[in-house]
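TA notes, week 10

Several of you asked for a full example with nothing omitted. So below is the full record: structure tokens for the whole chain, then the designed sequence directly under it. When grading your own attempts, check the secondary structure regions first.
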């Protein structure tokens, strides 16, 4: 009998949730960034072993919603927690013993998952003494490094033990329930974020307008949206130099995703204040909840 179920990765922004998801699935599914709040939607990765299948949900930030985009992010995160059989509460080991997840998530009660497992991440940055102190303070917590992979196999075994007995829920060779289109758009957004440094991380959205896989190269027309003309000028760069460089770097990433040569036709458009616009948010695939802003 196999085990199968939903596993949500929760925790403060920057704890390393997306890095751990990619490490578990063995593939780059979730964009990672030193800037907090870069994961927007629920990314669903699938990990299939001989004895088990884990459907992994990466939760975007559980921050206080101040505008509709953040409200949609919080809704997605809470939904992932509600759907989960196991919640991995990931925390930065350098910050010591983490507060309870309910507190991190701003919830009244603990999430309803069958099991919550604490994993302290980034132990590659800790000294032996610091690790020992954490072992003493939290003997049940896993100490892991999503970056190097240390401790991840043991964490995975523990998570698997807590899953319900069930047949596999997805075909064994699937790595995600999201479409290649979704990931291509995410890779473009990630590349723009990398190359813009701190200039406008939250104002960027990417949308695939056309994705033709029949020919070679694969033809993709995509648009990067910003909120203001001034941001568009920055993104385009002098004589288009910056957007060309973003397009080149993003194309290389998408080529390794689809395993074929890609022609990426990349455009920049202004969609005024899209982050505050419910219609624009839905168009980019963000679900807005009925949850009132607190
Ligand atoms: P998220 O906001 O929780 O999804 O965090 P990310 O996965 O985007 O990671 C945030 C930052 O922490 C990135 O710069 C990662 O490279 C870094 N990071 C994640 N895991 C580790 C780890 O195990 N060790 C170290 N040194 N850095 C890590
Ligand atoms: Mg993330």
């Amino acid at each position: 009998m196999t085990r199968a179920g939903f596993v949500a990765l929760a925790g403060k922004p920057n704890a390393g949730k997306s890095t751990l998801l990619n490490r578990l699935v063995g593939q780059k599914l979730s964009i990672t960034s030193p800037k907090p709040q870069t994961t927007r939607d629920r990314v669903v990765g699938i990990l299939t072993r001989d004895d088990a299948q884990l459907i992994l949900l990466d939760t975007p930030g559980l921050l206080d919603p101040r505008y509709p985009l953040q409200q949609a992010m919080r809704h997605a995160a809470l939904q992932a927690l509600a759907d989960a059989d196991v919640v991995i509460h990931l925390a930065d080991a350098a910050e010591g013993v983490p507060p309870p997840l309910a507190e991190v998530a701003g919830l009244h009660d603990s999430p309803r998952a069958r099991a919550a497992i604490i994993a302290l991440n980034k132990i590659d940055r800790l000294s032996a003494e610091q690790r020992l102190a954490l072992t003493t303070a939290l003997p049940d917590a896993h100490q892991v490094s999503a970056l190097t992979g240390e401790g991840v196999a043991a964490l995975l075994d523990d998570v698997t033990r807590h899953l319900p007995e069930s047949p596999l829920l997805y075909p064994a060779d699937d790595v995600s329930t999201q479409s290649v289109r979704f990931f291509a758009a995410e890779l473009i957004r990630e590349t723009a974020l990398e190359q813009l440094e701190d200039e406008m991380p939250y104002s960027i959205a990417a949308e695939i307008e056309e994705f033709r896989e029949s020919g070679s190269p694969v033809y993709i027309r995509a648009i990067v949206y910003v909120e203001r003309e001034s941001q568009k000028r920055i993104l385009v760069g002098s004589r288009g130099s910056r957007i060309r460089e973003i397009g080149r770097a993003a194309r290389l990433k998408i080529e390794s995703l689809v395993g074929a040569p890609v022609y990426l036709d990349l455009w920049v458009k202004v969609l005024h204040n899209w982050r505050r616009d419910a219609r624009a948010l839905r168009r980019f695939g963000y679900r807005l909840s009925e949850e009132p802003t607190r």
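The chain is about 35% helix and 20% strand. Use that as a sanity check on your answer.
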